[in-house]
Automatic annotation (TrEMBL):
The keyword Repeat does not apply. Binds 2 divalent metal cations per subunit. Has a high-affinity and a low affinity metal-binding site. The true nature of the physiological cofactor is under debate. The enzyme is active with cobalt, zinc, manganese or divalent iron ions. Most likely, methionine aminopeptidases function as mononuclear Fe(2+)-metalloproteases under physiological conditions, and the catalytically relevant metal-binding site has been assigned to the histidine-containing high-affinity site. It is an enzyme of class 3 (hydrolase). Substrate binds at residues 83, 181. It catalyses: Release of N-terminal amino acids, preferentially methionine, from peptides and arylamides. It comes from Streptomyces hirsutus. This is Methionine aminopeptidase.
């Protein structure tokens, strides 16, 4: 069931969203050659502590996972698409990193992700990250009252496919509010004019995921969490929490 939020509740979700934005900015600032993924997770934890917020990621156990998630930050490097578990890996020059972070504050959740390149960028990686951001912007642009979920999905998918990238099947965005994952599901590919109508007060986590090699195949790594591209090509992930309002989309996790 989709739960519409009042304007006051959307304002409260914006406050949570700014904790998420602050953490991602701090993580991106810290990330550099030689920095470990565990160190990035600690940076995110410190932002949570400073804000008096908690993590919806830590201890999260969905049906597909073998164990609870052990961190507050997802760190997906190079051929990892999403759900990467922070460990002792130290970032290298040219790594493509996607970081996904969530927070809970005052009973409301926020969720966002960003991809970036450490050190010397490769042209192909720059294009991949820029396309992920363009796909996210297209999806947000379609999140208007009177459109449907399929319009968001179609906008994202059109940008991704036109650039020649793959889209992992079955993974996409979601509603968000009192819990990190709520109805409805927001696919990253679909037909315009289909699906649930968008109404004022719907809040969605919109999150395109792109496979650089152009194929859609992926598999779970041995940790049971990290999703990797089958063709071992690099991947990018971008996400914002967005409120659908009569005044247009409002990005609650704007950085």
């Amino acid at each position: 069931m989709v739960k519409l939020k009042t304007d006051t509740e959307i304002d409260a979700m914006y406050r949570t969203g700014q904790v998420v934005a602050d953490a991602l900015k701090a993580v991106r600032k810290t990330a550099g050659v030689g920095v470990s993924l565990l160190e990035l997770d600690e940076v995110a934890r410190e932002v949570l502590r400073g804000a008096g917020a908690t993590s919806p990621f830590l201890g999260y156990l969905p049906s597909f996972a073998p164990t609870p998630f052990p961190a507050v930050l997802c760190t997906s490097v190079n051929d990892a698409i999403v759900h990467g578990v922070p460990d002792g890996y130290r970032l290298r020059d040219g790594d493509l990193v996607s970081v996904d972070f969530g927070a809970e504050l005052g009973g409301w959740a926020g969720d966002s992700a960003v991809s970036f390149i450490v050190g010397t960028p490769r042209a192909d990686d720059v294009r991949l990250v820029e396309t992920a951001e363009r796909a996210l912007a297209a999806g947000i642009g379609a999140a208007v009252v009177g459109n449907r979920i399929g319009d968001i999905a179609h906008a994202i998918g059109t940008v991704c496919r036109a650039a020649g990238y793959g889209i992992p099947d079955g993974f996409g965005g979601h509603g968000i509010g009192r819990r990190m994952h709520e109805d409805p599901s927001v696919p990253n590919e679909g037909r315009p004019g289909r699906g649930m109508p968008l109404r004022h007060g719907m809040v969605l986590a919109i999150e395109p995921m792109l496979v650089g090699g152009g194929t859609d195949g992926f598999h779970a790594a041995s940790d049971g969490w990290t999703l990797r591209t089958d063709d071992r090509s690099r991947a990018a992930h971008a996400e914002h929490t967005v409120a659908v309002t009569t005044a247009g989309p409002r990005i609650l996790t704007a950085r």
